[in-house]
């Protein structure tokens, strides 16, 4: 294999949160297992991103998804790092010229988890209770299900949000179950939300690897750890997202499920207060993942009307 002649370590770029580091370590472990390599052949490089530094405002006000990847992608383009590990749901649908998402690891559980301070279920929260979330998608779906709740912005990494919850700043919060599992914090979960009733974000639970498009060495390195069903599901979800021009300013959800050769997709768009919801379902051959995602997006836009997003954005 071409890696045998390489004398320097591969540099893996990642954000510095505990979850991001867990994802980078998971990626490194997969690469080591796939190629019979040693951990010291990979150096994990922590990069501070704008999204990590800006904690006092909603991401929708300051730039959207790219805030969690720009600085990492700049280093990737310059050659300072060799590959970048991201949460797929944080990635914009259009990448900088010269970069590509070359691999997706097997997806963790894509569902959302509710964590209540005094009650176990979202439906058990008393009228007027305060629930915190930084995601417009989660905020809108909460308001749709429970318009009586007080939904507040809730920034910070997983541990910070759990601490704020325990301090009583809110009565409950929602987090990705995948992240809690990767941090061995699933014991904190009081309810796992059914994805048919509370639809996840496109890409939720999946780790992706970004590399330079023309780097054949890196393409060969990551190809062996890319999981085909996850890749197909993410191709569908990202196609749905791209047609809708979705970002952190857009409350939308989408989830693709692969069963054998078939793909089943559910998507949703909402207005920010959850009073208007449009849903779509589609299916087909998994090999047609992109076409299914694009078709679902066009169908939901036809239902909602071309001015749906413009009416409140």
Description:
Strand 11 and strand 12 form a beta hairpin. The chain has a 5-stranded mixed sheet with strand order 2-1-3-10-4, sandwiched between helices. The mean pLDDT is 91. Helix 9 packs parallel to helix 10. 32% of the residues lie in helices and 23% in strands. The chain is globular. It starts with 9 loop residues before the first strand and ends in a 9-residue tail after the last helix. The chain contains 10 helices and 13 strands. With 313 residues, it is of the alpha/beta class. The longest helix is centred in the N-terminal third of the chain and has 18 residues.
Mean pLDDT: 91
The global form is: globular
SS element count, helices: 10
**Rg value:** 19 Å
**Biggest sheet details:** 5 strands, mixed
Q: What percentage of residues falls in helices of 4 or more residues? A: 25-40%
**Low-confidence segments:** none
Q: Specify the structural class.
A: alpha/beta
Secondary-structure element order, as H and E? Answer: EHEHHHEEEEHEHEHEEHHEEEH
Compact overview of the structure:
The chain has 313 residues and is of the alpha/beta class. It contains ten helices and 13 strands. The strands form three sheets. The chain has a five-stranded mixed sheet, with helices on both faces. Strands 7-6-8-5-9 form a five-stranded mixed sheet, with helices on both faces.
Break the fold down into its secondary structure elements and pairings.
Layout: E1 10-14, H1 18-35, E2 42-46, H2 50-53, H3 59-62, H4 70-78, E3 83-87, E4 99-104, E5 112-116, E6 130-132, H5 136-145, E7 150-152, H6 158-166, E8 172-176, H7 177-182, E9 191-192, E10 207-212, H8 216-223, H9 228-244, E11 252-259, E12 262-270, E13 277-285, H10 289-304
Parallel strand pairs: 1-2, 1-3, 6-7, 6-8
Antiparallel strand pairs: 3-10, 4-10, 5-8, 5-9, 11-12, 12-13
Helix pairs in contact: 9-10
